[in-house]
Structure formats: C-alpha cells, structure tokens
C-alpha cells in the first residue's frame, strides 16, 4: 500500500529542487503508516486501559490490590531488578572479553550472543528445564523455584547489555588509558576512573532494556516457574490465568499496571539516550 | 588498560563459563535429548498431521506479517529520518511499545477489541468473521509483536547516509519513485534485510501473544511454538523436544544469516 503512495508522486517541479518530490507524497505514506500503527498497536492497547475501568475505579483498585496480584507484581519487579543487576556485571564482563581479549573461536561466541533473540522463548524455557529441571543430567533441580525464573530471565535478556556496551568499548579511545598507565595508575583505578564512566550510559540503557523485557516475559517462564501463587507467579502469567478464568476486567486492570511500568521504562530509556548523547559531547 | 595474562585468562574463563552454563550447554542438551533415541522417532514426530499443519501455519502467518511490517517499516523510517512533522517524537516513542509490552497484554488487548464482547466483536460476528481463536487473530498478534524491527534497523541507516544523493537525483529530474528505487533503496537494502531477518525470527518464535488469542485448536490454530507447549503439557516429552529442535535449527539459521549480513550492513553505514 505504501508503494502506491510513493508512485503517486507528482512530477518534480523545477521550482523547488531542494525538496525531492517523493517527500510530498511521503505525507500520504506517513498517513497510512500512522494509521497502521494506530490500528495494530494503539487501538488494542487503549482497549485494555478502557476495559480496566469498566467496573469503575473501585473495581480497578480491587483487582490490582488483591493479595495475589500484589505478590505477583512484587516478585516480577524484584526478579526483573535482579536480572538487570546480574546483566550489568555479567554483560559488561562478556562485552569486555569479546572486545579486548583474543582467543580462538571468538567470532563464533560473538555470533551466539544473539541466540536468545533468535530462539523462541518456549524453546528457551524447555531448554533450561532440561538442564536444570527434574531430569537434569547433573542432578541440579531448581525447577519451580524463584531461582528458575531468574535463570530464564537471564537467558532471554543476555544480549541487551552486551550489545549495548560492545560498540562503545570498541570506539573507546585507548590513549586515555595509556596516559593514565604512564602516570602510574593501577588497572583497578584505570577501570574505575576512565573505562567505566565512559560505559555507564550504555550499561544503563542495556540494563533498562533487559528490565523492560523481564517485566513482560512470559514464554520462557511458563514451563519452568510452575506458576505457584505467592512464590513463583509473575504478573504476565497471572494475567494469563485471569484471561483463562474469564475475568477480562481484572486481567485488563493488572495488564494496565504492567503497561504503565513498560511505558515508564520506555520513557526512562529515551531520557537515558538523551543524557548519553550529551555525555558523548 | 593492559591487563596481565593471569587476569585476562580468569576473566575469559568467567565470561565463557557463564555463557556455557546459560546458553551453550542447555541448547546443546536439547539436541542431544532429541536425537538420543534415534532419528526415526524424531522424523515421525515432526511429520504427524498436527505438526505439519503447525509448521505451515507458522510459515503462513510469517509470510503475511513480515511483508506488511517491512512496507510499514520503510515508509515510517523515511518519514522519521527525512520528514519534519508534528508529533514525530511521540510516534517515534510509540513505535517501541511492542518491544516493551508483555506478549500476554498484547494478546489480551486483541481479545478486548476483536473478541466476542470486544469493541468490534459484534460487528465482526454479524459479518461472519471470526478473529479471536482463529487465524486472523494469530496474524494480528504476530504483526503487533514484530512491528518495530524494520523501522528500528532502517532509520539509523537513513540518517547516516544523509539526503545529498536524493536531492541530487531530484534536481536532475528524477521522480519520487525513481529516486527511491535507484538511490534510497540500494543504500538501505542491508538494513532492510537485517530487519526482515529479525522480524522473521520473532514471527516464527512468538508464543505469548499467539497463545492468548489462538484457542490452540490442533490442526487449525496451533503454531509450532504452541505445539511444543501442548506436547510438553501432555507428557509427550520426546515430541516436545523434536518440535523444539526444529525451532532451534531455524534459530541457528537466523543467527547465521544475521552474522553474514551484519558486516555488509555496517559497510552501508559508512
């Protein structure tokens, strides 16, 4: 449909060569694209918010403040924070090794980092359950525990911090580090005073993306968590159970809270991006 | 910072050990478990009528969602990188919503619009169209979750290449379509290709949103990922492994394609 939008461009007028003609037809393309975004994304999401208020504010509050909803949300946020924290350390370490270290097979390892993005989440969950579940060949069984949820989240969020830190580390000017070294600074000092400050915006934005992903994650958790209320039940699985038990208004209320968390993180990441860009200059 | 050998090796072991325990050993074990009782059983369990139907349904849904999102992605990326219009910042932020919103919430949102009691449910039922618990719902959910990939890959490429060549072409009398086909498209093609690969992987692998809207009717609305879950729930572990191995193979193929295209995409940037 956008192809027709582009073809319908009027012939370029000689009077305004500075504005390529296809841009004026771009208005039509933009209109269609924005309409597409509205129908596919915005209309359904607004239906969630509207439906959550179906029974009035009181019903909304009852749904989101029920003991089970609060426990699920609490666990979701805490385990997502833990995921982000482990990724801050682990992701930065892996990025450093992939940029500064040299070892055979590094290219393969580097390519495999993206595997969690390519692998379906349900397969990721089954995979982890095979190694760390009841039939584990190493006898490690953490299935249906909170640790298992953390493990699944670490799997699906692995690439975020690494892929955000790597390019910054590659671009990082090594002269600063050499200067510090020649002035007698120790490695720990150089890392803390020179390398780390340059990486902080990238680490934080990677961690925020990992957090956002963790809060909404469903597929990788559903098999391994056992979905035990008050222990391993996360909010997304709780919403799923509410939909299944035909309580769409309560489901919409809890979903609205999740939606607000996602929006807040999204805005946070954008603010972080602006801050990072300023930091660069 | 020059880290001495001993430190460097310890850090390397730590990083690779973490990757091995989290990523390599589990995924390797899936293939081992799949094939430990021979290849024949695996072949039989991925060629049952339900599995074949699930496979083709997954391909069909992907074949609808990806082209639509690619068109949307290119048009939106051009508008974001070249245009100057009111509300651009807002739209730019909203495009990322499908990445941030939980797949379950996405599924729920579609039920609330297209379901029996949804906003459009009555009108659709009168017209005899069933969206939820049917293929159109799966397609809508898949389009939703894979919407941002092409936009997010193409916009930075467009910003990077600038618009001098497009301006020159327009000055020389090239029409809008010609300028796009001869100048813009060749410059962004690897970015588009990368975005398409990410979209395909996401479409094939989507579980949460599809699981809410599909109804999981075997042989009708069951995709490959739903088949994995159902087989697992029915204690058909070998069958779940076989379908998982198939999906993991597709993922490895995706990874290979990503690795091959990445350097070209970065060349295009320069």
Structure characteristics:
heterodimer; A: about 280 residues; mainly alpha; about 80% helix; disordered N terminus; B: about 270 residues; 14 helices; globular
Structure description:
The complex is a heterodimer of chains A (281) and B (270). Chain A is mostly helical and 281 residues long. The two termini of chain A are 41 Å apart. Chain A is built from 13 helices and no strands. Mean pLDDT of chain A is 87; it is low at 1-22. Chain B contains 14 helices and no strands. By secondary structure, chain B is mainly alpha-helical. Chain B is globular, with a radius of gyration of 23 Å. The longest helix of chain B is centred in the first third of the chain and has 34 residues, at 49-82. In chain B, 80% of the residues lie in helices and 0% in strands. Chains A and B meet through helix 1, helix 2, helix 4, helix 5 and helix 6 of A and helix 1, helix 3, helix 4, helix 5 and helix 6 of B.
Helix percentage of chain A? over 70%
Largest sheet of chain B: none
Helical stretch tally of chain B: 14
Roughly how many Å is the radius of gyration of chain A? 24 Å
Can you give me a brief rundown of this structure?
Chain A has 281 residues and is mainly alpha-helical.
Topology:
The complex is a heterodimer of chains A (281) and B (270).
Chain A: H1 2-7, H2 21-52, H3 56-64, H4 67-100, H5 106-112, H6 115-118, H7 121-132, H8 146-171, H9 174-182, H10 187-216, H11 219-224, H12 235-244, H13 248-280
Helix pairs in contact in A: 2-13, 3-13, 4-8, 4-10, 7-8, 8-10, 9-10, 10-13, 12-13
Chain B: H1 5-35, H2 39-46, H3 49-82, H4 88-94, H5 97-100, H6 103-114, H7 121-126, H8 135-146, H9 148-161, H10 164-171, H11 176-205, H12 208-214, H13 224-233, H14 237-269
Helix pairs in contact in B: 1-14, 2-14, 3-8, 3-9, 3-11, 6-8, 6-12, 8-11, 8-12, 9-11, 10-11, 11-14, 13-14
């Amino acid at each position: 449909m956008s192809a027709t939008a582009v073809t319908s461009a009027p012939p370029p007028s000689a009077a305004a060569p500075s504005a390529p003609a296809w841009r004026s037809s771009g208005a039509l393309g933009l209109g269609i694209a924005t309409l597409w975004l509205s129908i596919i994304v915005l209309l359904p999401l607004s239906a969630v918010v509207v439906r959550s208020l179906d029974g009035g504010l009181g019903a909304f509050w009852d749904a989101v403040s029920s003991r089970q909803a609060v426990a699920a949300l609490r666990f979701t946020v805490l385990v997502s924070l833990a995921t982000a924290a482990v990724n801050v350390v682990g992701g930065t370490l892996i990025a450093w090794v992939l940029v500064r270290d040299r070892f055979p097979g590094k290219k393969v390892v580097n390519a495999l980092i993206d595997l969690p993005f390519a692998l379906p989440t349900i397969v990721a969950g089954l995979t982890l359950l095979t190694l760390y579940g009841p039939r584990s060949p190493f006898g490690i069984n953490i299935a249906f525990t909170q640790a298992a949820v953390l493990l699944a989240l670490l799997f699906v969020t692995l690439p975020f911090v690494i892929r955000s830190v790597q390019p910054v580390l590659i671009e990082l000017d090594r002269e600063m580090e050499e200067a510090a070294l020649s002035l007698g600074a120790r490695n720990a000092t150089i890392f803390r005073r020179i390398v780390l400050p340059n990486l902080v915006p990238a680490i934080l934005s990677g961690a925020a993306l990992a957090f956002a992903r963790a809060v909404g994650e469903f597929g990788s958790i559903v098999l391994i968590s056992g979905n035990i209320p008050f222990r391993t039940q996360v909010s997304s699985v709780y919403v799923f159970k509410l939909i299944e038990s035909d309580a769409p208004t309560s489901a919409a209320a809890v979903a609205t809270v999740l939606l607000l968390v996602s929006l807040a993180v999204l805005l946070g990441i954008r603010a972080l991006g602006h801050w990072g860009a300023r930091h660069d200059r | 910072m020059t880290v001495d050998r001993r430190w460097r090796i310890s850090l390397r072991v730590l990083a690779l050990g973490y990757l091995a325990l989290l990523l390599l050993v589990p995924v390797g074990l899936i293939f081992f478990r799949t094939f430990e009782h021979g290849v024949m059983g695996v072949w039989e369990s991925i060629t049952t009528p339900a599995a074949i139907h699930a496979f083709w349904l997954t391909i069909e849904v992907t074949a609808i969602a990806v082209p639509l999102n690619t068109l949307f992605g290119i048009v939106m990326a051009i508008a974001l990188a070249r245009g100057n219009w009111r509300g651009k910042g807002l739209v730019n932020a909203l495009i990322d919503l499908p990445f941030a919103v939980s797949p379950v919430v996405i599924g729920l949102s579609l039920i609330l619009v297209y379901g029996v009691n949804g906003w459009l449910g009555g009108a659709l039922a009168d017209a005899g169209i069933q969206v939820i618990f049917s293929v159109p719902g799966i397609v809508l959910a898949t389009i939703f979750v894979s919407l941002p990939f092409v936009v997010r890959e193409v916009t930075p490429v467009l910003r990077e290449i600038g618009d001098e060549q497009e301006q020159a072409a327009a000055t020389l009398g090239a029409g809008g379509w010609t300028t796009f086909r001869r100048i813009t498209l060749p410059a962004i093609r690897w970015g588009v290709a990368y975005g398409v690969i990410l979209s395909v992987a996401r479409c094939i692998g989507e579980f949460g949103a599809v699981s809410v809207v599909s109804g999981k009717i075997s042989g009708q609305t069951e995709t490959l990922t739903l088949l994995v879950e159902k087989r697992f729930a029915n204690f058909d572990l070998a069958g779940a492994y076989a379908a998982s191995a198939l999906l993991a193979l597709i993922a490895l193929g995706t990874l290979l394609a990503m690795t091959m295209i990445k350097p070209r995409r970065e060349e295009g940037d320069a």
